[in-house]
Specification:
single chain; 239 residues
């Protein structure tokens, strides 16, 4: 029994990673907005209330299927914690800047188009992991610049979700800072779980056998997300 579990450990770890993504990439995934009681709370908030907004930020990131898929793609072949820290920091700085700027400076961007580009960011990273750029175009893009740039787009994606709510100007700056801190906390929680699974998976023989299939799956999910958002954009124009 022990030998069987060791032999198939990689499959179980891949299943765990897939299950983690499926939890957030499920039937409610395409309704990735702040709604229900959370939206009602935001609308009723008058003045600084940083802790609940931190909770909302963390919740939004942990359930953010598009952000998580991108992060999985980014760290998929990063073996040193220093590299993981650099890339995640670049991504965080990017989305923090546009999240705050988008809401506080009222920079309006069509949410469907932003989320379509976020879907393409998932496609980009999986395609890069598969060696697509080098094979087809003979070059490899600067991934640090790409991750930081896509971080800016992901931040606008978060901003559009908040702009769709009835935000009260009283305490807005404090609450948005709290929301942003919560986003970073949520990202650290999700990253820790994903990274732990990835580290264990890499120690198995199945990692190199299944890495290509895993990235093809991520790439496909990115295309699905992009197509869905583009369809939403055109359907919105027909209403």
């Amino acid at each position: 029994m022990g030998t069987y579990m060791q032999k198939h450990q990689g499959h179980w770890l891949l299943f765990a990673l897939t299950a983690l993504l499926c939890i957030v990439f499920g039937p409610s995934a395409f309704a990735h907005a702040i709604g229900g009681k959370d939206a009602a709370f935001v609308a009723a908030t008058d003045g600084p209330d940083i802790l609940p907004f931190m909770y909302l930020g963390a919740k939004h990131m942990v359930t953010g299927y598009d952000h998580l898929l991108f992060i999985v793609g980014v760290i998929f072949f990063l073996y040193r914690m220093r590299d993981v820290a650099i890339y995640v920091t670049l991504f965080s700085l990017g989305h923090s800047a546009t999240l705050l700027a988008g809401v506080l400076m009222e920079i309006s961007v069509n949410p469907f188009l932003v989320d379509a580009v976020i879907g393409l960011s998932v496609v980009y990273k999986a395609f890069d992991n598969l060696g697509g750029f080098k094979s087809l175009f003979g070059f490899e893009p600067n991934n640090r610049v790409a991750v930081a740039s896509f971080g800016l787009i992901h931040g606008f994606g978060l901003a559009t979700k908040l702009q769709a709510l009835d935000l009260n100007e009283n305490g807005l700056v404090t609450n948005m800072i709290g929301f942003n801190i919560g986003v970073e906390i949520g990202q650290l929680i999700a990253l820790s779980i994903i990274l732990a699974v990835m580290v264990l998976w890499r120690r198995t023989e199945s990692f190199h056998r299944m890495a290509i299939a895993a990235n093809v799956a991520i790439l496909t999910a990115g295309f699905v997300l992009t197509e869905y958002q583009i369809a939403g954009y055109f359907n919105e124009g027909m209403v």
